[in-house]
Amino acid sequence: MKQTKYKLNQITDYINELINNQQGVGLSVAIVKDSEIICSKGFGHAQIQPLNQPIDGETLMSIQSISKNFMALSIMQLVEKNLISLDDAVVKYLPYFRTNNKQQSDTITIRHLLSHTAGFPSNLGIANMIAPNVREIFSDTPTEFQEALDYYNLTDDEIRSVQSREDVTKWFQKVELEYPVGEGWNYCTDSYVILADLFEKVTGSNWENHLRNEILTPLNMERTTSDSDKVEGDLNSARYYLGENKIETPFPKNSISAPIGYLYSSANDLGKYLAFHLNKEPIILRTDLVEEMQNPIHPVSEEWRFGSEVRSYGLAWFTDVYRGFKVVEHNGGQMAVRSLMAMVPELNLGVVVLLNFDGTAHHDICDKVIDVFIDS
Fold first, then answer.
1. What is the pLDDT of residues 181-228, one digit of tens each?
2. Cβ neighbour number for residue 201 with a 10 Å cutoff
3. Which of 205, 215, 270 is nearest to 64 (CA)?
4. SS3 12
5. Contact partners, residue 359, CB within 8 Å, separation at least 6
C-alpha cells in the first residue's frame, strides 16, 4: 500500500508541474492496476469561461477516436453470436457498398475495415465534414470552409445530402483505393461509419442502443454516452481550448459519425473499460475475442513516440513495445481534444488520460506512469 502511494505521489507531482505550465486548462487521469482503479482524478479546469470549473475523474469529456474501440467491440459481439464472421465480405451485408472499382471493393472484409487495411486513403474527410457545426469549425477566414471542402474533394451539396450512415457507405462509390485490399495500412477514420451501418443492418437495431445496453450498462459505465446535448448540459463537462490564448473551440458533436470519434466518457469510466480488457473476463465478450482485438494485424505507416519498429494495428487497438514491454493503446484528438487509453498487460496496468487542450501531454503522462511502475 505504501509503495502504491509513493508511486501515485510521483505521478501526481509530475502532472501538477505539467498542468501548472498550461495555466487554466485541465486533464483527468485514471490508473488501473491488478483489476482495480487505484487513481481517478482531475488536474486543472474543465471550463475556464465564464468561471473556472474544476475537472475530476467523472468529468464528461470527448474521447474522439477511442470511440472506435467501442464500435469494434460491438462488431466482435456479433462474431460471438455467430451473426457475422470477420472475414465476410462487407457486400454480403451491405450490397450497396462499393468503391469506384467494384471488383476490388467486393473483396473488402469486415476485418479489413476494422484494421484499416481496406485500401482506403487516409484523408477522405466525409465522416467529419458532416458534423452539424462544421461551418463553425472552419470559420477563421471567409474561405476556410471552402478550402476544407476542396482539400477533401467534397462539395457543400454533397455533405448536406448525407443524412444517415447508409448515405456515408454509399458515398464510398467515389473512392479510389490507394493499395490492393489487405496489402497496406492507412488510418481511415471514415470506415468505422460503414461498420456502424453494417452493425445496424445485421441486427436491425440502433448501434447506440446496443452500446448502452450491451456494453456500458454491464460494465457500470454510467458516464459514457453518445448524446452531445446531454453532455453539453451536464454541470460537470469539459470545454476545449486551443493555443496559448486558450480560445474555446466548437463543441465536438456529430451523431451520424459517433462510432469514429463522437462518444463522451470520463477517466473513471474508461478505467472500468480498461479493467475489462486487462482482465479478459467474459462479461460482455468471450476471452479469445478480447485477445483477438489486441493481436497486431499490420504494421503502421507512421512514426511513434516509442521509436520502435514494431508498431502495429489490430482491431481498434495499436500495439507497440516500450522499454521491452508490450503496450496496447488507442488515442484520439481533434481541435484541443486529446485522449489516450493504454494497457501494459505484463504489468496488469492501464492508463487513461483526457485533455481539454492541444499538445502531447497525454502521451507524456502515460509514459511517466509506465516508467514509474517499471522502475519501482
1. 999 999 999 999 999 999 999 999 999 999 999 999 999 999 999 999
2. 15
3. 270
4. helix
5. 338
* CA–CA distance, 251 with 243 (Å, rounded to integer): 16
- The model's pTM: 0.96
d(CA 5, CA 174): 56
Q: Which residue has the cell 440502433?
A: 206
Integer Cα distance of 354 and 332 in angstroms: 9
Looking at residue 346, the DSSP 8-state letter turns out to be G
Phi-psi region of 89 (alpha: psi -120 to 50; beta: other; left: phi over 0): beta
> Max alpha carbon distance in the chain (Å)?
62
- The secondary element (H helix, E strand) that includes residue 365 is helix 361-375
Are residues 86 and 290 in contact, defined by beta-carbon separation less than 8 angstroms? Answer: no
List CB contacts of 318: < 8 A, sequence separation 6 or more. Answer: 300, 311, 312, 328, 329, 330, 331
Residue 102: other Cβ atoms inside 10 A? 11
Residue with cell 466548437: 250
Distance from C-alpha of 270 to C-alpha of 375, rounded to nearest angstrom: 25
